[in-house]
Every structure is written in structure tokens, then in C-alpha cells.
Structure to design on (373 residues):
């Protein structure tokens, strides 16, 4: 690891893999573009750098993006502290805050956790601002930073707790045998444990005999590079498969369950997740294999009735046209690079959340779990 400045802030419960940590000076992000070949931490000490880290997927995975955005608000306001003069008008700081939130919110569109975390930071910001006079002194600003730092840390700690709980709840229902997973839903994608991968990890720690099929997950290769890296570290048996192998393995009886994460879940159970998830769900249904989605409550979008309203990120063509900087397609070939798809709720066996397993009918049971009815 490269040198870093300050005392690391990192909650208890982050063990083998540290996807990021922060200090008063900067946020350090394990650069996932470089894994598994290099383990390098990227120093983000400005709003711009945090934004780029999310946009360019140095950090990715819905819960991780949310946590990093929360910390990003703190980093950005800290950066701002060096530029402002006191007394500082409340209105001006509010405008500055809105700009920070807007910038971070524009980094990636699909994972709702990003917007959820920013909203939490916004609430805390306004709550604290309401107690200040209309012109702020330095001590007010510092108090505000302290409160925002605490909230960002709370978001991270809550995610870790939710992960362990999902592991416990999901670990009990996951069958033994071959379990297939897509993308990366482990420590790298969360506060440091995992959602779907956390369930697999927990089940194995409880003594279940499981072998994992890891979808390589083109084009960013979250499976082949990141999930495989995590499973190797955890000494969990796995094999990487190409994304198009799933159907045939299912037909041969070599898949007992599919378990994936989520980026945004609508109130009827429609679920946005990494592109390829929908095809897996269709295949699982055809072969009568359970299809589990594991996600914290923060991934449910209270404002969305169904999946049609979920914004689907379209990423650069070059991610498809190139493989590790080598062009693999003809010079003039174009590509469509949708980063996510939406799986209809009817293809999902159950959701595993920190509040328990949600079974169909999802229209009622999701609302009940979220406390909306
Ligand atoms: O584009 P990514 O790598 O951010 O997409 C990640 C996924 O699709 C994950 O499955 C999802 O965020 C859940 S991570 C616990």
C-alpha cells in the first residue's frame, strides 16, 4: 500500500479486504480497475477525485458507491474550508453544498444507494445548519464537518451490520452444491463484507459444502477479476465461467441456486442489477432453480412502483471493443454497452435482506418490510 496521510477511519468488522478507508485529509480507494494484478490505493482528497473514482469505477457496487459518496461530501466540504472566508453566509454554504451533492449524484445513475446516502447527508447538513446563525464562523463549519463525518461513518457501519445479517439469514437457506453468482457483490462492492457473496461466505463458514460458479461478467470482468480475487483470499472453492455457460450448466444439473446482488429494487420486486442478470433469471426459471437477490434495505427505491422507471447506465463503447487495451473488434465496429438490466420480480424466488427473507407476493411483502403499509 502507498503512503497515506492521517489516521485511518475504518469501522470494526472490515476484515480481510479493505475496499477503502479515509482520514481527515483524504479518502483512499482500492483501485478496482487494477485488481487482481495490482493492489493500489487511489488518494481522493477533492470532490473531483471522489467523483472520478465513482464514475470510472475505481470503486463500484451499489452499497460501496453510497458509502463513498457519503464520505465524499465530507471530503468536498473539507476541501472547501481552505477556500472560504469567515464569516460565511449560510446561504452561500447551502449553495455550495447543493453543488457538491449534484456533482456526486451525477457520477452514476442506476444504483439507488448513491442517492439514498446523499439524501441522508443532506438531511444531517440541513438539521445542523438550522442551529447556526445566518453568518457562520469557522467553529460552526468545523462542527458541521464533525456531524457529517459521523453520519458518513454511520452509513458505512450500518452497511457492514446489514451485510453480516444478510449473511446469517441467507446462509441458512442457501442450498449446498453448486451456486452461481454474477458480477461482484463481496467486500469490494460494499462496506467490507458482501451481499450475495457475503451469504455464500457465511454459508461456507457454517460448514455448508458449496462450490461457486463465478460468471466472468463482461466487459468490466467484475467476476473474473474481483469475485475470483476475493474468493481466493477467502479460500472458497470456485471456478470462473464465461457468461454464456450458465444455461448448459443448469441443464446438466450443475447449478443448485443462483444468487446475485442488486442496484435498485422497485416496490413490485423488479430488480436492476449487472447486465446479464435478467438472462440468468430466465434460465433459472426454465430449469426450476431458485434465484435469490440479496440486498440491503437501502437498495429498495420507495418511489418506484415498477422497474420501467429505473435509469439504465450506458457506458463507453470502448469497454466492449477493447480487452485490456487491445482492440478486439474491427476498427469501425460499434458497440452497445448497457451496464445493467432489469429482472422482473416474477422471476425472483426471494429477496434476502437484513430484515429477513421477502417472498412473493412482492407487491405486498416488500411494502410491509419497508414499513410502507
Ligand atoms: O457496475 P457495477 O460493478 O457497479 O455493478 C455492480 C452490480 O451490479 C452489483 O451486483 C450490485 O451493485 C450489488 S453489489 C453488492
Amino acid at each position: 500500500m502507498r503512503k497515506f496521510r492521517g489516521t485511518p477511519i475504518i469501522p470494526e468488522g472490515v476484515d480481510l479486504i479493505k475496499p477503502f478507508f479515509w482520514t481527515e485529509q483524504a479518502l483512499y480507494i482500492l483501485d478496482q480497475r487494477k485488481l487482481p494484478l495490482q493492489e493500489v490505493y487511489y488518494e481522493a482528497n477533492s470532490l473531483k477525485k471522489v467523483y472520478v473514482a465513482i464514475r470510472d469505477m475505481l470503486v463500484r457496487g451499489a452499497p460501496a458507491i453510497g458509502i463513498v459518496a457519503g464520505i465524499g461530501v465530507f471530503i468536498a466540504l473539507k476541501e472547501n474550508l481552505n477556500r472560504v472566508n469567515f464569516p460565511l453566509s449560510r446561504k452561500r454554504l447551502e449553495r455550495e453544498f447543493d453543488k457538491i451533492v449534484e456533482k456526486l449524484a451525477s457520477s452514476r445513475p442506476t444504483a439507488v444507494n448513491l442517492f439514498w446516502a446523499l439524501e441522508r447527508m443532506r438531511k444531517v447538513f440541513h438539521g445542523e445548519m438550522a442551529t447556526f446563525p445566518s453568518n457562520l464562523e469557522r467553529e460552526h463549519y468545523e462542527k458541521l464537518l464533525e456531524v457529517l463525518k459521523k453520519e458518513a461513518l454511520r452509513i458505512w457501519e450500518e452497511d457492514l451490520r446489514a451485510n453480516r445479517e444478510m449473511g446469517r439469514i441467507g446462509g441458512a437457506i442457501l442450498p449446498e452444491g453448486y451456486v452461481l453468482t454474477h458480477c461482484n457483490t463481496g467486500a469490494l462492492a460494499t462496506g467490507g463484507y458482501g451481499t450475495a457473496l457475503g451469504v455464500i461466505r457465511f454459508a461456507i463458514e457454517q460448514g455448508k459444502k458449496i462450490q461457486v460458479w463465478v460468471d466472468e461478467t463482461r466487459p468490466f470482468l467484475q467476476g473474473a477479476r474481483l469475485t475470483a480475487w476475493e474468493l481466493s483470499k477467502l479460500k472458497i472453492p470456485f471456478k470462473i465461467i464465461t457468461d454464456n455457460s450458465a444455461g448448459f450448466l443448469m441443464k446438466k444439473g450443475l447449478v443448485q441456486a443462483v444468487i446475485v446482488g442488486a442496484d435498485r429494487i422497485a416496490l413490485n420486486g423488479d430488480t436492476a442489477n449487472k447486465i446479464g442478470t435478467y438472462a440468468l433469471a430466465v434460465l433459472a426459471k426454465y430449469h426450476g432453480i431458485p434465484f435469490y437477490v440479496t440486498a440491503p434495505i437501502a437498495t429498495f427505491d420507495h418511489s418506484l412502483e415498477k422497474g420501467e422507471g429505473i435509469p439504465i447506465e450506458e457506458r463507453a463503447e470502448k469497454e466492449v471493443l477493447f480487452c485490456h487495451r487491445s482492440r478486439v473488434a474491427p476498427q469501425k465496429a460499434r458497440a452497445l454497452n448497457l451496464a445493467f438490466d432489469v429482472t422482473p420480480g416474477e422471476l425472483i424466488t426471494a429477496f434476502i435482506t437484513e430484515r429477513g427473507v421477502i417472498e412473493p407476493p412482492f407487491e405486498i411483502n416488500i411494502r410491509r418490510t419497508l414499513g410502507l403499509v
Notes: The domain at 168-370 is CATH 3.40.50.10470 (Rossmann fold). Residues 105 and 115 are 6 Å apart (CA to CA). The first strand starts at residue 20 and ends at 22.
